[in-house]
């Protein structure tokens, strides 16, 4: 196989987005647009990938990291000028270069692979990715000869009435013979209204020089969608959501209402898991088999074990084991680890806490900065008092301990193995294993108090 190279055009600011965030960094299903493009390109067996950066250069580099090399376009003078910035990295290399815009998040590796194959099979010096559009207005039209070869690209404003009837459009993605691309870029002129150097002019120059220029037509219009404003961003989100949800359903996941289910591009979900409406799964979430998730649940960057049920709850940056029940209305905050067969019930919040196998916090509790052993029962209203205004401290509850309702554990403190804490206690010292700790005032009953109180109030009126 010949050498393959790629150029991603990601230097534009995207003024029509009307945003402080640079265009290609806007997320689609939780992943920045340029990351979608780079991830798909990475499947093409490339020798080198070069991303052209400009506005937000450091942020784009931080996003893509070592996945790509970079070339800076300090002035945005058009797409041909942008590709020219990669000349030091690419111009002397033999092979084929694919050029893709960083604001086309829906393009797939399959389509790019087909484009590259067509380019090679037709011995073309340039190949254009095209698609048929129901409404081609505003797009460049592909004018073909009777033999099917590309004669020219005509912009909508320059097209004749007959040419405007053509429904095959230019998507803005191209393949080139690499050396010929960079030789031809130097011939591109900026003699146009915008005073910019346009990449499609390379096609015209090659054609005029007698080189073979071809087009590969994809049947997926959505892959050609370039995101230039918030309206197009919402369209890309809709298309991507449908693609992701369809993938999971075809791989054995049940989505009760796909239109009301949002799953990130990087999420993994096991077979026979059921996702209820209103569920949002973000980031690198990994959900096991035979789970029930939702309704109205948010999971982000977390691992969920098999046969776990999470209802109307939030789980962020945590790990949950098998056969766990979470919710309704629970909040699992970052850096928490929940072992198998645990119950985290309604209105329970845990943060930076590990819970051992079989433990329970069934109602109305806050457990933060804690190590909870196995088979521990945290009664309704149990609180780890972990913050003194300056520092966080650790609470330990060892295996088999029982914490009564409305108990405060003032960290740092340890409740030993098998110990009992009486309901309503405020524990400030360690509790030995197998001990009963009672830390509350003795009950005092004042007989006839209410009657005397009423007499005093009447005498003062």
UniProtKB/TrEMBL annotation:
PROSITE patterns named in the record: HEXAPEP_TRANSFERASES
Cofactor info, note text: Binds 1 Mg(2+) ion per subunit.
Residues that hold acetyl-CoA according to the record: 386-387, 423, 440
Cellular compartment(s): Cytoplasm
Domain annotation Nucleotidyl transferase: ranges: 6-217
Keywords tagged on the record: Acyltransferase, Cell shape, Cell wall biogenesis/degradation, Cytoplasm, Magnesium, Metal-binding, Multifunctional enzyme, Nucleotidyltransferase, Peptidoglycan synthesis, Repeat, Transferase
Cofactors, names only: Mg(2+)
Binding-site list for UDP-N-acetyl-alpha-D-glucosamine: 9-12, 23, 73, 78-79, 140, 155, 170, 228, 333, 351, 366, 377
Main location: cytoplasm
Entry keyword annotation includes Transport: no
Location of region: N-acetyltransferase: 252-461
Magnesium listed as a keyword: yes
Recorded catalytic activity of this chain's protein: N-acetyl-alpha-D-glucosamine 1-phosphate + UTP + H(+) = UDP-N-acetyl-alpha-D-glucosamine + diphosphate; alpha-D-glucosamine 1-phosphate + acetyl-CoA = N-acetyl-alpha-D-glucosamine 1-phosphate + CoA + H(+)
EC annotation from Swiss-Prot or TrEMBL: 2.7.7.23, 2.3.1.157
Amino acids binding Mg(2+): 103, 228
HAMAP family given in the database record: GlmU (MF_01631)
UniProt subunit comment: Homotrimer.
Protein name: Bifunctional protein GlmU
The organism of origin for this protein: Metabacillus sediminis
Gene name tied to this protein: glmU
């Amino acid at each position: 196989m010949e050498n393959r190279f790629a150029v991603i055009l990601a230097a534009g600011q995207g003024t029509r987005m009307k945003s402080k965030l640079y265009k290609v960094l806007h997320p689609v299903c939780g992943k920045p647009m340029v990351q979608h493009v780079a991830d798909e390109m990475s499947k093409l067996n490339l020798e080198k990938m070069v991303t052209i950066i400009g506005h937000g250069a450091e942020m784009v580099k931080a996003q893509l990291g070592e996945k790509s090399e970079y070339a800076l376009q300090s002035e945005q003078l058009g797409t041909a000028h942008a590709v020219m910035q990669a000349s030091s990295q690419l111009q002397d290399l033999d092979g084929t270069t694919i050029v893709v815009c960083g604001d086309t998040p829906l393009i797939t590796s399959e389509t790019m692979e087909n484009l590259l194959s067509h380019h090679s099979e037709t011995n073309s010096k340039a190949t254009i990715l095209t698609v048929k559009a129901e409404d081609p207005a505003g797009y460049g039209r592909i004018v073909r000869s009777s033999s099917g070869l590309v004669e020219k690209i005509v912009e909508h404003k320059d097209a004749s009435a007959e040419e405007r009837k053509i429904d095959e459009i230019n998507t803005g993605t191209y393949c080139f013979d690499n050396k010929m691309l960079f030789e031809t870029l130097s011939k591109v002129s900026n003699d146009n209204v915008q005073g910019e150097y346009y990449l499609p002019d390379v096609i015209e120059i090659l054609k005029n020089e007698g080189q073979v220029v071809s087009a590969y037509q994809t049947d997926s219009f959505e892959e050609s969608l370039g995101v230039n404003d918030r309206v197009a961003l919402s369209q890309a989100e809709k298309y991507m959501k449908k693609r992701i949800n369809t993938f999971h359903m075809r791989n054995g996941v049940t989505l009760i209402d796909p239109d009301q289910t949002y799953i990130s591009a990087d999420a993994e979900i096991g077979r026979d898991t059921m996702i209820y409406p209103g569920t949002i799964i973000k980031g690198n979430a990994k959900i096991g088999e035979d789970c029930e998730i939702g309704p109205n649940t948010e999971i982000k960057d977390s691992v969920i074990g098999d046969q776990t049920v999470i209802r109307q709850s939030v789980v962020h940056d945590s790990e949950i084991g098998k056969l766990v029940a979470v919710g309704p209305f629970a909040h699992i905050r970052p850096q928490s680890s929940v072992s198998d067969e645990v119950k985290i019930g309604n209105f329970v919040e845990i943060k930076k806490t590990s819970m051992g196998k079989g433990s329970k916090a069934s109602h109305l509790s806050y457990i933060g900065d804690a190590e909870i052993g196995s088979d521990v029962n945290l009664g309704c209203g149990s609180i780890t008092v972990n913050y003194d205004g300056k520092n966080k401290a650790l609470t330990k509850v060892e295996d088999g301990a029982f914490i009564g309702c409305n108990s405060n554990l003032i960290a740092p403190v340890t409740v030993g193995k098998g110990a009992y804490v009486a309901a309503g206690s405020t524990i400030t010292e360690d509790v030995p294993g197998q001990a009963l700790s009672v830390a509350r005032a003795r009950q005092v009953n004042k007989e006839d108090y209410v009657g005397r109180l009423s007499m005093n109030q009447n005498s003062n009126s």
